[in-house]
Design a protein that fits this description.
alpha+beta, three-stranded antiparallel beta sheet
Length: 88
């Protein structure tokens, strides 16, 4: 399963949708990236293949970051890829 995770400005929890195929995940990733690059606020609607009833509608001007990764048995319960910020 491939995860497309979207972080929104001023929101601590990321939003995510899943795709079964890596190519489909890359297509969604590119769709989100293109929406960010466009710069004009619009609504981006996404659905999830793993949970068909799950739907997201995001205001593109509020997207801070997007990442895609493959969910495997090793990462299902552990840390997700990406940056970890901590206090030292």
């Amino acid at each position: 399963m491939n995860i497309i995770e979207i972080s929104l400005k001023f929101t601590p929890m990321p939003m995510s949708v899943q795709r079964k195929e890596a190519d489909d995940a890359q297509t969604v990733y590119q769709q989100v990236l293109d929406a960010i690059k466009a710069g004009s606020p619009s609504v981006l609607e996404l659905t999830c293949e793993h949970q068909p009833e799950k739907k997201l509608a995001l205001l593109t001007s509020e997207i801070a970051a997007v990442q895609t990764y493959e969910k495997s048995g090793a990462t299902s319960g552990g840390k997700r890829p990406g940056f970890a910020f901590g206090m030292e």
